[in-house]
Amino acid sequence: MEQLAGDELPAGEITAETLIATGYYRLGPWDDEPADPKQDRYDQLDDIVNTTSEVFLGLTMGCARCHNHKFEPLTMHDYYRMVAIFEPLQRPVNGRMERTLPLQTPTPIAAVASQGKSSDAPQGYFLHEPSANPPVSHLLFRGQAASPGPVVGPGVPTVLVKAQPNFPQPVPGAKTSRRRVTLARWLASAENPLTARVIVNRVWQNHFGVGLVRTSSDFGTMGEPPTHPELLDWLARWFIEHGWSLKALNRLILTSNTYRLSTESDPRYAAEDPQDDLLWRMPYRRLEVEVIRDTMLAASGRLNRTMYGPSVYPAIPPSALAGHSDPDKVWHPSDEVSASRRTIYAFLKRSLVVPMLEVLDLCDTARSTARRNVTHVPTQALTLLNGGFVNRQAELFADRLEREAGPESAAQVERAYLLTVCRSPSQVERTTLLGFLERESRNRLADAARAEGALTGDRARHEALVQLCRALFNMNEFVYPD
Q1: CA 92, 98, 104, 110 torsion-angle sign
Q2: Where are the beta strands (DSSP E) in 320-398?
Q3: In a 3-state reduction of DSSP, which class is residue 150?
Q4: 360 touches 436 (CB < 8 A)
Q5: Rounded distance, CA 341 to CA 335, Å?
Q6: What is the pLDDT of residues 58-99, one digit of tens each?
Q7: Domain residue spans of the chain
């Protein structure tokens, strides 16, 4: 409701948060200087329609822009009815918006979006409807703005409804067309057959790595059928009956026997169901890159838990900036304390993604992604072993262990395991790592002596501890939770 129509809610329900939620419309790519502004306008609307239909309905509406969908019961008229819902939105003008956002007190948004730098700055980040009189919408032949066809009104896919929702006519004195709030109410209604199923499937995917419907943005003919259709239906109905509460849904899933299964394999079950479609074990999967980075910061004791405010700019290797057309201006790294905030606050520039995030399978930042790719390539191992961020956190982690566990190696190893994998080391692990620390310290002292360098025993032990910390960051158990 808030993402699609946060500015069209009843007057008493409009807040800074509901307006910020409509920033959803500005997340798509745009061209600052399009060769054909009118065509670019419909390309942006296409991104909104396609993303909205995939995210909330699990339908690939974008395939019906130029012709009736080849595989689903979706027509061009269905597509352009959806376009008509969003067409009243004002698009950016020279990268900015006209300052007509209906907001009585812009300060709350400014405080969140730009940390109080300018009370009118946020208007540049929000699409809005400048009036209650929407433009006339046309079906476009071949999807081209220069080839308008018959007039179409707002509506939703015909296959999903017995009767179209009642989209209001322009009302004198109204500030918007109220088309988006009509769509939002239909999407969030119990009568809609898809939204609740799509949401519970995404929540399931978040916890298990894959959804009950593997193609979580495509519930149509070309998508995969649910592995457990009755469970999906039951969860959707339960979700609606419990007030669409995501907290309650997460609690239900996390306290289930299915979620509490071990990741250990069973040869008998694996022979019958190698893909684990029947959920006989918890899938073994790698953490997302944001979680890996945040966990390293938490282990080193440097995680900055400050919430809200502007994005931060993590350090980027000079080599990654060298190929950019304007390397001195494109990226200004934040100080280390600010850059150590949770990775969700990292600034995302589509033409310059932080290398560590990109290497470890950050999702596509230009379009909606149903599920991230998970690759296993050498550059990932090199990043986690030799990357500047990892080595810096290993150094800080070693400092923390010396502060909290004291000079004794056994206590340091015990503390290191608790902070990284939340358990004590086994006897074999403890013996192995204590032996490593001893050998590494001796080797570093010997190397320094041969090079006629000055290295104390304490410094040699510290450097050995740094290498142990780096090794712990590269354990499978650190990035593949059980």
Answers
A1: positive
A2: none
A3: strand
A4: no
A5: 11
A6: 999 999 999 999 999 999 999 999 999 999 998 755 544 433
A7: 2-187, 195-272, 289-386, 388-479
